[in-house]
Amino acid sequence: MKVLISGTSKGIGKAIAKYFLKQGHEVYGLDVLKASIKNDKYHHHVCDISKDKLPDIKDINILINNAGVQNSNDIDVNLKGTIRVTKKYAYQQNIKSVLFNASASARSGFEFPEYVASKAGVVGYMKTVAVDLAKYGATVNSISLGGVITESNKPVMEDKKCWDEIMKVTPLKKWASLEEVCDWIYFLTVTNKSMTGQDVLVDNGELNLNNTFVWPK
After folding, report:
1. Looking at the domain covering 2-147+175-209, what would its CATH class be?
2. What's the DSSP call for residue 205?
3. Positive/negative CA dihedral, 79, 177, 37, 58
4. Cut 0.85: pTM above it
5. CB–CB of 49/82 below 8 Å?
């Protein structure tokens, strides 16, 4: 299938792109940074989803809205930029699935204020899109991740005091690996054919039993 992923140059987005490529899909990436993936089936476009002209890519089957920032124009990129991308690529008859990368913080409110607001907005917007795209038979959902083992989370992962505090309130005593996240995203966009309009929480049990947010001061 033809898959478009925003934010593919590093972290979760890069991992997702490589996962879909491994499964034989044609992958298109959008990012403010240059391509970091070399594959004949990968096509990269450098752009800021919040303000640049979005490239013309026709007949996308799967759209994964992953691009996001933290403490840097969060509302403009995470919410408004995501809306721009969705309107550009998802509203057409070939669309089969749309997934939004939200955040466990959208539910708990325990994180940086504008980031929380932007991600909560994404979850709300997802429900609107689910209704709109139902006429095409497309599933539309969001995934709200708790802690994920990525480079961007190193400040808290490598701070023993912070890490110990997080583990105290995390029932499964771990964070999700990138491989786990990719498995979830592939399931929600490719395997799933019936669930739509839902926000899926994947956080190792942290939110339902404890509400906390830990970051180095």
Report:
1. alpha beta
2. T
3. negative
4. yes
5. yes
d(CA 102, CA 201): 9
CA distance 24 to 157: 33
pLDDT, tens digit (0-9, with 9 covering 90-100), for 46-85:
999 999 999 999 999 999 999 999 888 999 999 999 999 9
Q: What's the pLDDT tens digit per position in 6-47?
A: 999 999 999 999 999 999 999 999 999 999 999 999 999 999
Q: How many CA atoms lie within 13 A of 144 on its CB side?
A: 24
Give the C-alpha distances (Å, rounded to integers) separating 56 from 34, 100, 108, 132, 178: 18, 20, 37, 21, 29
Instruction: Pick the closest to residue 12 from 184, 156, 178 (CA basis).
Output: 178
- Phi then psi for residue 201, to 5 deg, are -90, 125
The SS3 call for residue 40 is coil
